[in-house]
Amino acid sequence: MNILDKIVAHKRIEVAEAKAKTSIADLEKAPLFSRTTLSLKNALTANGASGVISEFKRKSPSKGIINDRVLPEIVTKGYVEAGACGLSVLTDTEFFGGTFVDFAKARTANPATPMLRKDFMIDEYQLWEAKAIGADVILLIAACLTPAEVRHLGRQARELGLEVLLEVHDREELEQSVCEYVDMVGVNNRNLKTFVTSIETSLELAQRIPDEFVKISESGLKDAETIQQLRSAGYQGFLIGETFMVNDNPGLALKELIDRFQPVGHS
């Protein structure tokens, strides 16, 4: 059993426990459930956009503790002030050290910034959870969903007013899972089964992603040269977490990176 299989198996137990505690009807009563969601797709394609989606991540299965000394509200506010187009906040506790509390603090600190609930979505119940905590975007990982599940969850997310980021790792996942209920396609340069990272994954798939989808490169992005290379290949979004989180001041690390490349529309 690889790490992705372990995560999904644990997630099924988590979701069953959550359903037993809180009904969908109760989630719909949450104060943030009725808020108008923000578009990450629009934020990434706006003139002058940096294209960076900055992530708050305490730990990961491959690296262990990355940074457990910082507060989500301070880090995410620093990201936005530095020029992030959107925020990604982990809500998986067991493997990534994230919580709904982290998400709530980031949401309160950044009411005008699109936010992705970063988690392993395997059940439509989690979409209602995402809406209830104030998420704007949800992640569907092709490696742990069938194409039919991607369609079903994507359609339901759309009905709830949430944007959908489909994450793929190879050509087969892309061709089988991309559908009309997806807004953005993210290419994860880290193989979730082996945790080996290669930017070549994004470069290989760039031209295979239909142009109607905003293209996002994820994982292993560390320098301005790589971002420029990916932008030239057609990517408009860059999801970056660990590169910033290893610093005591992740927001400053983002600012220094943006200063080294030109946001879209800037001469």
From TrEMBL:
Pathway(s) per entry: Amino-acid biosynthesis; L-tryptophan biosynthesis; L-tryptophan from chorismate: step 4/5
InterPro entries attached to this UniProt entry: Aldolase_TIM, Indole-3-glycerol_P_synth, Indole-3-glycerol_P_synth_dom, Indole-3-GlycerolPSynthase_CS, RibuloseP-bd_barrel
Database matches in CDD domains: IGPS
Lyase found in the keyword field: yes
Domain Indole-3-glycerol phosphate synthase residues, every copy: 4-257
Domain of life, per lineage: Bacteria
UniProt entry keywords in alphabetical sequence: Amino-acid biosynthesis, Aromatic amino acid biosynthesis, Decarboxylase, Lyase, Tryptophan biosynthesis
The reaction(s) this protein catalyses: 1-(2-carboxyphenylamino)-1-deoxy-D-ribulose 5-phosphate + H(+) = (1S,2R)-1-C-(indol-3-yl)glycerol 3-phosphate + CO2 + H2O
The EC number(s) this enzyme carries: 4.1.1.48
A GO BP annotation: L-tryptophan biosynthetic process
EC class name: lyase
Keyword Lyase included in the entry's annotation: yes
Gene3D superfamilies xref list: Aldolase class I
GO terms of molecular function: indole-3-glycerol-phosphate synthase activity; phosphoribosylanthranilate isomerase activity
Listed name of the protein: indole-3-glycerol-phosphate synthase
